[in-house]
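User: My collaborator sent over this chain with a note saying "see what the structure looks like." That's all I know about it. Can you take a look?
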Amino acid sequence: MSGRTLRIDFVSDVVCPWCLIGLANLERALTNLGDEVSVDLVFHPLQLNPGLPPEGELAADNIARKYGITPDQARSRGGGVRAAAEAAGVSMAGRPDRLYDTFDAHRLLHWARREGRQLALKHALLRAYFDQGRAISDHQVLADAAADAGLDRQMALQVLARGEFAAEVADDEIEWRSEGIASVPTMVIDREFVINGAQEPDRLERALRKLASR
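Assistant: Without extra context I'll predict from the sequence alone. Here is the result:
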């Protein structure tokens, strides 16, 4: 094993397909590296669509508004992301046609880190949205994901109901934006080296091996 542990800060959002793909590619690279590289993986928030109403928004309407195109043009996009998901071996079979506010999901992820289950919850949230097509802003859905990740469901509901970790999540996002992080996924290695986007596993493997051997 490498003589030290690489810290990987993974800045992402729960409803971002490239974040789903980027995490899958990173985990494949880490599997390929085996004992060569040890990592401490920590997830951080960067919301793509903060402040959406509880019912969310149609994805096509959201994309059309952001890029100045029609909803029909927005619906025609997506071939690249589907191909990348297939190559990464991840399922987007149940991906809904709606986007949701993810602030509460990030609050739960902050709590899950304290409980030592952050990665498990990240996977559960991604499954809930992309594979099961569930409304990721709904507290019952979030509590189900927490239980799926091995966390206490009732405790998760309490965290959500009490508004716990709201300040911490807001401050965390502000900090990363102040560092110039404006897109997701972004990986920051040892608070020094930045890897943008959902890079291929072999590229990540080479980069992590090189950084670990410094």
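A starting point for your reply to your collaborator: The longest strand covers residues 5-12.
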